[in-house]
Amino acid sequence: MSTSNPVREALPRKTRDALDGWLASLALERRLSGHTVTNYQRDVLGFLGFTAQHVGNPATFTELSNLRAADFRAWLAQRRNEDEVGPRTLARGLSAVRTFFRYLAREGLAENAQIALVRTPKQPISVPKALSVDAADKLLGNIATDDSWTQARDLAVVTLLYGAGLRINEALSLNVREWPKRGEPMRVIGKGNKARILPVIDAIHDAVDSYRDRCPHVLELGSPLFVGARGGRLNPRTLQATIARLRSALGLPDSATPHALRHSFATHLLGAGGDLRTIQELLGHASLSTTQTYAAVDTTRLMEVYDAAHPRAK
Q1: Catalytic annotation on 294?
Q2: Is 167 tagged catalytic?
């Protein structure tokens, strides 16, 4: 996973070998994506380069073990002030460094408890941008305007995103053998290689069946469920382009993206009385706090309940 980098080449050999071992463990043991591993590598290399300059010595295991909490904070401050990175990037960088130190400790190479004293930078509250129910209906109602199999396919994918709350990559990674029969749940592999079980409503089955009936390619058990023009796995950009064209034609906001349908799934369930714990399980969120951001979206419903029920609202 390593690449040629001046900071990496300047590291002591043992530190460089440990870095390579850690990156390999991220890919093989934790099954993180190549993109995530690359970001983690960049963050830790930046930290190790800063450490060498900060302490005036190469980033040996001894130097890493002797770092104080103030040293870690100094690195974060430099990134914030000089590199002008935001809190999300800072938090990701700190997470990468913590993971690297856990690996060093596990391998008996270096230990440093001081990093546990460094707080993760406070994150801005980001409220998911969901479509209204009318906008979601408008989008689904205008995807398939003829009998072409590609439009039937796009409608099937969008119905799956909105009807089951899938991420676009989760939907497009499905193979034919993983598609359930009616009345059976669907098993989805999400972030961190975590599996979750989801119900599949009839509207989704109807859309997928219509697509499969029209699809000119042979969809065998090991084949991708959703395929492109040449029969290979459908590229997310194809669906994103379709949504972008519809968004413009229908006058929908820029926030009307394939991922917005996942947000809409959660928000509309919450608005209909769904509880956060159930929605957390359906979305595959590791933390309830992530799911709680959807509660901020449905303020209209909350105010209606307040106006109808609270004795001081009259």
Answers
A1: yes
A2: yes
140 and 13 housed in the same domain: no
Residue 187 among the catalytic residues: no
Collapsing DSSP states into helix, strand and coil, what is residue 174? coil
- What pLDDT tens digit does each residue of the chain (314 aa) get? 445 688 888 899 999 999 999 999 998 888 888 888 999 999 999 999 999 999 999 999 999 999 999 999 999 999 888 877 788 889 999 999 999 999 999 999 999 999 999 998 887 666 557 778 788 888 888 888 788 999 999 999 999 988 888 888 889 999 999 999 998 988 888 777 778 888 888 999 999 999 999 999 999 998 999 999 999 999 999 999 999 999 888 888 787 888 888 878 777 666 666 655 666 666 655 554 554 555 555 555 545 545 665 565 55
d(CA 281, CA 265) in angstroms, rounded, equals 13
Residues 21 and 138 in one domain: no
233-240, long-range: CB within 8 Å, 24+ apart, which pairs? 233/172, 233/173, 234/153, 234/157, 234/172, 235/172, 236/168, 236/169, 236/172, 239/154, 239/157, 239/158, 239/168, 239/172, 240/168
Domain, as residue range, for 102: 6-117
Active site residue 153: no
Spatial distance between the Cα atoms of 240 and 237, rounded to a whole number of angstroms: 5
Indicate if 259 belongs to the active site: yes
Which of 64, 84, 117 is where one domain is finished?
117
Per the domain annotation, does 109 fall within a domain? yes
Choosing from 73, 98, 129, 191, the catalytic residue is: 191
